[in-house]
Amino acid sequence: MDENQSKEWNYHPNLPLADSSPFTHLTEPMFLLNWIYKNWLSLSERILMVAVAIVLWFFVYPSLEETKDFHFSWIFEIYFINLTMMILVAGSLHYFFYIRKSQGNTLKFDKRDLTKNNRNFLFSDQVKDNMFWTLTSGVFLLTAFQVVTTWLMANGYVPVNNFSSNPVWFILVLIFLPIWSAFHFYWVHRLLHFPFLYKRYHALHHRNINIGPWSGLSMHPVEHLLYLSSFCIHWIIATHPIHLIFHVIWQGPAAAMTHSGYEDLLIKDKRRLALGTFYHQLHHRYFECNYGNQEMPWDRWFGTFHDGSERSTEETRARKKNMY
Questions:
Q1: Is the CA virtual torsion 97, 98, 102, 103 positive or negative?
Q2: Fewer CB within 10 Å, N or C, the chain?
Q3: Is residue 8 part of a domain?
Q4: In this structure, are residues 17 and 283 in contact, taking their beta carbons and an 8 Å threshold?
Q5: What percent of the chain lies above the pLDDT cut of 70?
Q6: Distances from the Cα of 202 to the Cαs of 227, 253, 294, in angstroms?
Q7: Could you give the dihedral angle defined by the CA atoms of residues 222, 49, 171 and 23, in that order, rounded to the nearest 10 degrees?
Q8: Does the pTM exceed 0.90?
Q9: What is residue 58's three-state secondary structure?
Q10: Residue 133 lies in a domain
Q11: Where does residue 268 rank: exposed (0-12), middle (13-18), buried (19+ CB within 10 A)?
């Protein structure tokens, strides 16, 4: 058996998982420089999202002048753009990995196929269930937060920053938003795992033990509200519509990427685009661990980190037994 395979997993990265959070390496300049280079100075998924956000702002989304008053036309325009992005990203990934099976099982975490003929899912089908929640509640509430925030920006009710007036702050906000999202996600996620909220709302997302691209934004509307409340940061600090669009992509279509079930996209046998993380895949398998992501150190600090080892699995199962 390959060293990156096991009886539980078709593929896993080298275990135990390394600590890749910049916040636990603040005294290591080379680590921090490498983290900055990997995420912001090379052709990373973050750079691609920023590029898409810039193009969408200048050529697709309505201007701030158009959004000063609530009108169906521009609200529907934003909704249609978000719906299209979600379908294109999640749909393309699903088609590539699960219909055409273009990458086979290479770098696929879970050995199993996505679920069919299972009454736990709407329509007894995991993919149809996930598409329903993503394209109804998910895109609707994603758009609602964006519409309200855009309207607030257009009317000067929240601070707005332009690159020309403060380029340093403009760039710092781009770097800050994924970190903020990771911080917000951890605490909202911990909240959703309290039994009262878990059983009523978050359990819907956790039907997806084996995840696919449509699983990322497949949530109960209450969970969507909590998850997407991350956008409220734009009501407090000075940002620009480009930041907001980048944030929308990060919270919406990017969730399809991180839930693809594969670690990377291969082109001619070379890793070209980072997708899912084994860190979060462990959460979907074992539930009461890895509530955040690798960018924030909270799971390590608060004893909920699963490093992929059997010991961590036993500890997680014991913690879960005590919770329920």
A1: positive
A2: N
A3: no
A4: no
A5: 99
A6: 11, 20, 21
A7: 60
A8: yes
A9: helix
A10: yes
A11: exposed
